Amino acid sequence: MDMRQRKHIEAVVEATTRTLPEGQPTGGPMMAARTHEAIIESSWRRCVHQYGLDPSRMQEARILPQTRLREHQQRIDDFARIARHGLQTLYSQVAGLGYVVLLTDAQGVTVDYLGDANTDTSLRRAGLYLGAQWSETGAGTCAVGTALATGQALTVHQIDHFDATHIPLTCTAAPLFDSHGGLTAILDISALTSPQARDSQSLALQLVRIYASHIENANFLRTHRQDWILKLNTSPEFVDVDPEYLVALDASGRIVGHNRRAHEMLAAEQGRGGELPPLVGTPFEALFDARLEDLGRFVYSRPSELRALSLARSGALLYLSVMPPAPLWQPGANATRDAGRATKIPAPLAALCGGDALLERQLERAAKLVDSPINLLINGETGSGKEYFAKALHQASARRGGPFVAVNCAAIPETLIESELFGHLPNSFSGAGPKAKRGLIQEADGGTLFLDEIGDMPRELQSRLLRVLAEGEVLSIGASRPVSVDLRVVSATHHSLDELVESGRFREDLYYRLNGARFALPPLRERTDLDWLIQKLLADAPGGAVALSPAARERLHRHRWPGNLRELCNVLRYARAVCSDGHIEVDDLPENVSASVSVSEAAAPALQGASVAHEEFDPHLLSPEGMLLMQYLRAASWNLSAVARQIGVSRMTLYRRMARYGIRSPNQRDAGAH
Asked: Where is the Sigma-54 factor interaction domain (predicted)?
């Protein structure tokens, strides 16, 4: 602990033990009217008196494990996708000044992050990183946590922080609200070092406020595209291009949404102080001096200076631009059913599932993203159907008329993968030959490039692929000028890319380019639609109908399917070939399947400590996924029910995973030993 940290701790202790004048507030929604110093001191007091934090205890940044982080990311997935462009544009303006850009959810967990890869280690140590937890209850006074607590944009600069660990940092944050006034996320820019004066961050605060407003408005327009949208501004010149206030009306003329500035303005118009009153449900005519049927006068086609509108109570003049509800988009048979209902799953995607709830949720997410520009990452065990999933995404998208080019990064020899992907000019390297060759990336122009087993791509080629994704250009070997390509990249791997990034085997910047949205395909042993899959595979095979005996079906259900769908296809193909009279019996199944035991039976001896003695168990022999599961189990003192709830699976699924990785409870091992 250095002298500056020691003095800071003393200042926090003195401020939080001082008696406040009677009636002075310690926090709440009226913070905007108070000085910055009062806001910070109120936050310090909350940290000590409400959250029980100790200012003398300096804590390292808390980074959530990847499993927990993904849970937070999935909850805010749609909003984060809309916010991403705003984050990128903001980062382009502040990156040269040493800032990183963070987006956190309403719990203060960083779900998106843009920063300089050269300072990765320092940023992670400081908590300016993906997965960092910045709530006041955990990190003390900080820009994210205090913005969450107060609902106000602010800068927490150096010694404003509660924890002395954070006093080198300067952090500026603004809350992001949904169209009902709910606090959804926090936009933050932070730097590891900065000038001493807090005033040096005035521009940072203005930028964060501006981009927070842009993100909120983008989310509002997308959320209410099926409603009447009122764009309002005090200036006729800016009402169409940069509205200050946004209000959404339903068909009856009642408010169904608003941005934060409209909420504040209309609440003030109604003469209400304190907490902002709800506006949803309020009739248009109660707030504006116009009739609902007059809205046609305010459409974009009329000159903006002729679209003046008065507020009903104060008579203040605003200018209005009206957007009528957008017509429902109907791409053939896969149309949106109606406003407010979910998009139907397109037929190519729907054909992958027979009712498994987990997979169906993934398909519903995929249906929303089939025509989005973001790249997709598919995780799943070997044989779990990652390429089928990628092809279905392609066939369901507007790119279906273009090529689908699949590249198995693990199957191409390392010496050839560069020329296979990027192509080459004649005689550009030893063995190139006299003719030019288009690479697979160019072959995918106008369609989809599927990079299977992306985790096995050599690291030196990852930077070249990053350029393709960032610039939309590909440079062949031996060429001096790049060629533009228009493609959508879908990647897949059975590896944990997070682990590869941590070990330095996979570029983090490429990982975030590829991981626009992630889909996790369940292994076959955890799917509930096995009967549907069996029937589908038997029906689709040539040679006429084949029946499956109850005993054979039961044996298929008992098998653990380490090879997943690929293994199931091979098993049924074999059984179909050897069965008699179109009837598959147990004896017609391959030997490894006909003799298999159920997952729960396989798990039982492991859980009872039957195979390996306690002292022989070595957790370091586990895979990365097994190590992560072991960490959860140890942290919960081997309370299996608690771990199952924490990672969101049933106890039986947890038993299966423990059996898969050879993990056994020490309690069960000890019982088995006796």
From this structure: 352-577
